[in-house]
């Protein structure tokens, strides 16, 4: 007989936070947003934590190596998408792991024989203003110089001329050996007014580079997501079809954490994938699972060994699973149910399995609502797709700048491994293809969002995420409240808005 839950399915938009007492210790500077990513013993410490509770979605339009590096710099974590070949995904993971905090793998390189036109296009495509010149144009080739947009002008110089004709030769540049400390490297940058410091081996080959911009970012964000070797952390998505080949390749590439990417995670296929990762591979890397919308799904995946569990079906801005299949649950209702089961599981077993809120977040304050309801961290697609660092194209539509954005269930992505429709092809869509308003660089946007989260927690009398879970007070919002809050006011240009 059919079971009908005695509830109305609620979204994050249907709740507001009620302020608690703000004490003297409740200041934005004292708020600690750090959070666990993977399971750990109750009373212990998670082996993987991030300073900012934001991770990027496992999507083609979102999680590229460039975005992963930027998000790790700001304290979050990115999951490289799995809708690509195993070798390509593993290389994307390796590309992130080649970057150490402060010491970057050089990814904008050219050779002396290249033309100014070629380097101009390279810099424009990468949205950079300086390239490293090596003998063979590789990141580890013999270092011969630097060339930047300050060294030539496309309307003054012949673009058929060689890079060698306008580059600054290595002999006249400040360089440093691989043994230099990051502190000393930054001193050289400031003493010599450098934007880029090449790190060069004894035999003259490029080892890495240090950027002035990274120093400034470190001072702003301070808590990069790095491993014990100071390499940026990165996650990756896997599926339940080729996991026996994909997971070992991603482990070899250096992935810090994996996540099974599926629209519906309450399945024996996810259990089998987790048992392989935990059993046959001996837990070489933690693997999260999902998505689920109730306590049954959470318990099933937690017992199978999931490192964390993702919550949400059909709530994403680009997802139409609810329209196509009639499956899902309001994100707030799903979180409330799953979080209650997480806490029961922790009490019964002594193991805490973090919960990730994935989808249903249309405004920055929805992130605070999700955390208050018990989410440990938040996965975002649309939010990150808007930024320079996402891999999608920037387009101009009627004078307004947008970034392309498409769902993994769209015909454009055709992510068969994510959506079990019983076919080798997708007979129907569970996502759409569109555009999101362009929002500039990730860095100032993350800083703004973090400021909002800290301010909200201060008003709620909490300075840590666990305290926010414990002490937050929420109230449902009526339609009349919406109407009163939406009284018409003509806004000046640039005022208001959620940033999303």
From TrEMBL:
Binding site for K(+): 314, 316, 319
EC number(s) stated in the UniProt entry for this protein: 1.1.1.205
PROSITE patterns: CBS (PS51371), IMP_DH_GMP_RED (PS00487)
Active site: 319, 418
Superkingdom of the organism of origin: Bacteria
Coiled coil, from the record: none
Catalytic activity: IMP + NAD(+) + H2O = XMP + NADH + H(+)
InterPro entries for this protein: Aldolase_TIM, CBS_dom, CBS_dom_sf, IMP_DH, IMP_DH/GMP_Rdtase_CS, IMP_DH_GMPRt
Alphabetical keyword list: CBS domain, GMP biosynthesis, Metal-binding, NAD, Oxidoreductase, Potassium, Purine biosynthesis, Purine salvage
SMART domains assigned: IMPDH (SM01240)
UniProt keyword annotation of Electron transport present: no
Residues annotated for NAD(+) binding in this entry: 261-263, 312-314
Xref: Gene3D superfamilies: Aldolase class I
Gene Ontology BP, a term: GTP biosynthetic process
Needed co-factor(s): K(+)
Molecular-function GO term, any one: metal ion binding
Domain (CBS) ranges: 167-225
PANTHER family: INOSINE-5'-MONOPHOSPHATE DEHYDROGENASE, INOSINE-5-MONOPHOSPHATE DEHYDROGENASE RELATED
Family: Belongs to the IMPDH/GMPR family.
Protein name, entry field: IMP dehydrogenase
Taxonomic source organism: Dactylosporangium aurantiacum
């Amino acid at each position: 007989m059919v079971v009908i839950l005695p509830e109305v399915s609620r979204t994050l938009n249907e709740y507001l936070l009620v302020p608690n007492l703000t004490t003297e210790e409740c200041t934005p500077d004292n708020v600690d947003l750090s959070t666990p990513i993977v399971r750990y013993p109750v009373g212990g410490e998670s082996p993987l934590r991030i300073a900012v509770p934001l991770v990027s979605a496992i999507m083609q339009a979102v999680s590229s190596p460039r975005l992963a590096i930027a998000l790790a710099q700001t304290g979050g974590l990115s999951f490289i998408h799995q809708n690509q070949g195993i070798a390509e995904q593993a290389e994307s993971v390796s590309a992130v792991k080649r970057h150490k905090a402060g010491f970057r793998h050089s990814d904008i390189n050219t050779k002396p024989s290249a033309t100014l036109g070629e380097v101009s296009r390279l810099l424009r495509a990468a949205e950079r203003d300086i390239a490293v010149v090596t003998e063979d144009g590789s990141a580890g080739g013999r270092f011969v110089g630097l060339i930047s947009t300050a060294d030539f002008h496309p309307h003054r110089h012949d673009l058929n001329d060689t890079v060698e004709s306008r580059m600054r030769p290595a002999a006249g540049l400040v360089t440093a050996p691989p043994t230099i400390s990051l502190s000393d490297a930054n001193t050289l940058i400031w003493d010599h007014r450098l934007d880029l410091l090449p790190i060069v081996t004894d035999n003259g080959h490029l080892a890495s580079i240090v950027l002035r911009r990274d120093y400034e970012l470190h001072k702003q964000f301070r808590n990069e997501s790095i491993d014990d070797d100071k390499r940026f952390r990165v996650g990756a998505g896997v599926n339940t079809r080729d996991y026996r080949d994909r997971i070992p390749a991603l482990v070899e590439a250096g992935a810090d954490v994996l996540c099974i990417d599926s629209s519906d995670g309450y399945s024996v296929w996810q259990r089998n994938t987790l048992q392989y990762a935990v059993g046959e591979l001996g837990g070489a890397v933690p693997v999260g699972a999902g998505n689920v919308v109730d306590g049954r799904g959470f318990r099933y995946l937690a017992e199978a060994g999931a490192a964390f569990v993702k919550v949400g079906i059909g709530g994403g801005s680009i997802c139409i699973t609810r329209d196509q299949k009639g499956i899902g649950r309001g994100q707030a209702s799903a979180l409330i149910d799953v979080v209650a089961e997480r806490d029961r599981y922790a009490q019964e077993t002594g193991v805490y399995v973090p919960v990730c809120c994935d989808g249903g977040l249309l405004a920055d304050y929805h992130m605070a609502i999700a955390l208050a309801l018990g989410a440990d961290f938040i996965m975002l697609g649309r939010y990150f797709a808007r930024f320079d660092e996402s891999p999608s194209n920037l387009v101009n539509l009627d004078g307004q700048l947008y970034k392309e954005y498409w769902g993994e269930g769209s015909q454009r992505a055709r992510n068969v491994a994510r959506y079990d429709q019983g076919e080798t092809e997708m007979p129907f869509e569970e996502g759409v293809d569109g555009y999101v308003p362009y929002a500039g660089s990730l860095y100032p946007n993350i800083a703004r969002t973090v400021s909002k989260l800290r301010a909200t927690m201060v008003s709620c009398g909490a300075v840590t995420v666990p305290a926010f879970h414990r002490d937050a007070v929420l109230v449902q919002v009526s339609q009349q409240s919406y109407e009163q809050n939406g009284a018409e006011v003509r806004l000046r240009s640039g005022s208001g808005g959620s940033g999303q």
